[in-house]
Amino acid sequence: MNPFENDEQTYLVLINGEEQYSLWPSSIAVPAGWTVVYGEESRAACEKYVDAHWTDLRPASLRRMMVGDRGEGDAVRTPHPVLGR
Q: Measured between alpha carbons, how far is 69 from 51 in angstroms, rounded to an integer?
């Protein structure tokens, strides 16, 4: 059975430097570049954690780039491709 799709085993929730999340079987070593942020819990509990915490699927570097030098919380306005504004 695939350890990444086994509802009978326990899982961890990992996060990487881009603030992307991953469900990870607790029986497998955590890969380099990833940190445990939740678990060891059921797959359902880990999925619930990810759903509650990973609310912006864009990588952290893209979010920072979009904010740029405008300051925290200011959105970068992208011109409309046809209207140019």
A: 30
Rounded CA separation 37/39 (Å): 7
| pTM for this model (two decimals) | 0.73
Burial label, 35 (beta-carbon count in 10 A; 0-12, 13-18, 19+):
exposed
In the beta sheet, which residues pair with residue 21? 15
Higher pLDDT pick, 57 / 35: 35
Please tell me the distance from the alpha carbon of residue 52 to that of residue 23, in angstroms, as a whole number: 14
SS3 17: coil
DSSP for 42-56? Answer: EHHHHHHHHHHH---
